[in-house]
Design brief:
The chain is α/β, with parallel strands linked by helices. The chain is built from 5 helices and 8 strands; from the N terminus they run E-E-H-E-E-H-E-H-E-H-E-E-H. The strands form 2 sheets. Strands 2, 4, 5, 6, 7 and 8 form a 6-stranded parallel β-sheet that branches. A two-stranded parallel ribbon has the order 1-3.
Length: 192
């Protein structure tokens, strides 16, 4: 069983113009694609045409590509900038489109900030929210402090230390995702 691929979509959580977290998201997505134990897909909150007057799980079926990817997923990577110690509202709106589809699946965070903390506070803010969705948070985060110094204008990585960091980050996510998949397939739960 351990040689079959796991499916881990990645979502870029901001729709802001001139977002620097796009470089981090595309780089991590490339690292996912390089691994032979992972299948992935990149989602961008810009792709979601959310209605202004109604959203939540009631309209999740209006976003079938996202819904089907999360149903298939063994884990999820969320790449999010830190805005005023919190996460972007658009990211929350997209995550709120589903609920039961997330239960007992792993989630790993890539935090991005212009300042020195690398999204530590946004990850701390997201943990209770994703826990309520039923996701299980990994032990290892990937942080990009002062993100403007980590990539050039074309999105090429400038700090080679991230090559080792991303390996540990993904190894932990793969372990959690495989373990939770085994549990979903083999253990009874009132949620499955």
């Amino acid at each position: 069983m351990a040689d079959d691929k796991i499916f881990i979509p990645l979502i870029l959580g901001t729709n802001r113009r001139d977002r620097k977290s796009e470089h981090a998201a595309k780089w991590v997505h490339q690292k996912l694609q390089e691994r032979d134990d992972i299948e992935t897909r990149l989602f961008d909150v810009r792709e979601f045409d959310l209605p202004r007057d109604h959203y939540g799980t009631e309209i999740g079926s209006q976003f079938p590509e996202w819904r089907d990817a999360v149903i298939k997923a063994d884990g999820l990577i969320v790449v999010t900038p830190e805005y005023n110690h919190g996460y972007p509202g658009t990211l929350k709106s997209v995550l709120d489109l589903l609920l039961k589809e997330y239960i007992h699946k792993a989630v790993a965070f890539v935090g991005v900030s212009a300042g020195p903390w690398g999204g530590t506070r946004v990850i701390e803010a997201m943990v209770p929210m994703v826990r309520e969705l039923g996701l299980a948070v990994t032990f290892t985060d990937l942080n990009f402090p002062k993100v403007g110094t980590k990539f050039d204008e074309k999105g090429e990585l400038l700090d080679p230390a991230y090559n080792d960091r991303v390996t540990g980050f993904l190894d932990e996510l793969v372990w959690m995702a495989r373990t939770l998949r085994w549990g979903r397939q083999n253990l009874k739960s009132k949620h499955h």
